[in-house]
Amino acid sequence: MDSDEKQFFCGGFGDGVVCGGFCNRLLRVNFFKTIFGAIGVDSNTNIRCEMKNLLNMVKDKPNGWLQLLDNNGSFAIKSAYATIQDLRMGGQEYLLALLTKVVFMNQKGHEKKIEKPDDESESYGRSWRLTVEANNARPWRIVPDNCYNHLQNYMSGGQYQLDLNLVVQHILSYAHEIPLAADGMDAWILDVDDTCISNIDYYKGRRFGCDPFDSAIFKAWIMKGKCPANPAVLELFNALIKKGFKVFLLTGRDQATLAQITTNNLRNQGFIGYQRLILRSAQYKGQSAVRYKSAIRKEIEGEGYRIRGNVGDQWSDLQGECLGNRTFKLPNPMYFIS
């Protein structure tokens, strides 16, 4: 242990002789009461037992303290060790206690294995939804059957709308702070399906993605032209138009067969005043969504527009080139487009 470590472990809290990467004087009792009290060890006897256990772990090991941290495997421990001296020097004892709590977690807690939640439980559905929203399960093709009840409750019970509303509020806050240039070339990109307008009514009949995607059935749904607006996104759209952004609606829908029905659907739902609706033309058929939308954004920037924001429900809306200054992911655990 070097002099800096000695100063930290011994110098500030009482005399002590360093032994195996820790001081055998065990610092001062009142300091330990603060530390161990934070993790539920409140008696002097228990404190002595805990410290004895820690000393046994590091005894006669050259870098026992650091090895103990590594073995415990906490992501926070190394950063805690690196910054704890600075915190102490700054007199931030409350932060020191919190960091020490991370370091001195009891060993049983660290040895606990991560278990997969019960496949039949609501908790599994929540875990699965978080995983796909964080884009950690890509690519995936179908929602697991045992997630159906959770997704039904999530999409139809109000939480989906609350989540969507919160994201939109953050987008609005960001948009309001942007000073627009006088040239009128500040642009914004919005996805269409399950961003501007919703396909939830269709996906109810597909068990919210638990049934395989059927392109013919989905196209028949689109051809009805009755996709309702996402109210929060319509509010966002109108706010962007009012402020002066040039809004581009970018969709993977087929231009040859769905252009007019999509235009009418959007107009009927209140999406009026956008700069351009862009659908997938023949030259982009067969390309991934990432490649297609990247190419379109590049064209928009090539016209001199500055993409200030980009919003979509799929990660493929927000990946690739020319993404803009900031991207925003809307919730959608029902399907994945690569």
TrEMBL record:
Molecular-function annotations in GO: acid phosphatase activity
Classification via Gene3D superfamilies: HAD superfamily/HAD-like
The record's keywords, sorted A to Z, are: Signal
Could you tell me what this protein is called? Acid phosphatase 1
Q: What InterPro entries does UniProt report for this protein, alphabetically?
A: Acid_phosphat_B-like (IPR005519), Acid_phosphatase_pln (IPR010028), HAD-like_sf (IPR036412), HAD_sf (IPR023214)
Organism's domain of life? Eukaryota
Which species is listed as the source?
Glycine soja
